[in-house]
User: Fold this.
Amino acid sequence: MIQLKSLLKVIDNSGAQIVECINIMGTRGRIGYVGDEIVCVVKKAKTAEASTKQATSSTLVSKLRKGEVCRAIIVRTKKETLRKDGTFIKFDDNAVVMINKQGQPLGNRILGVIASEVRQKRWAKIASLAPRVV
Assistant:
């Protein structure tokens, strides 16, 4: 359950590290669940100096900077989620994957596991990038 002002971890290589939720897209009200789209503000991003040590000259500029408003998909929540088979699943942190306005992921790699509800809610591209879907 993600609400306004929640801080979330970014698990892709888009350049952002911590984001703050400012709006939940859709009609469910003010609470966001796994697979929901949110609007967020980048609170912490990777600096250009840190990325120059690992990146090549073509990728020196980070895709997202601090203060940018962007969209994201919730892929993990601390609050347990009931599945149709009667089991519950919860994670250690609240995490998102950054997307653009067309719904395509900004990063080309996802670091960490994601919930299977992401695939069921029309985000198959994000699920295919993840190393593991739980």
Observations:
- The chain has a mean pLDDT of 90.
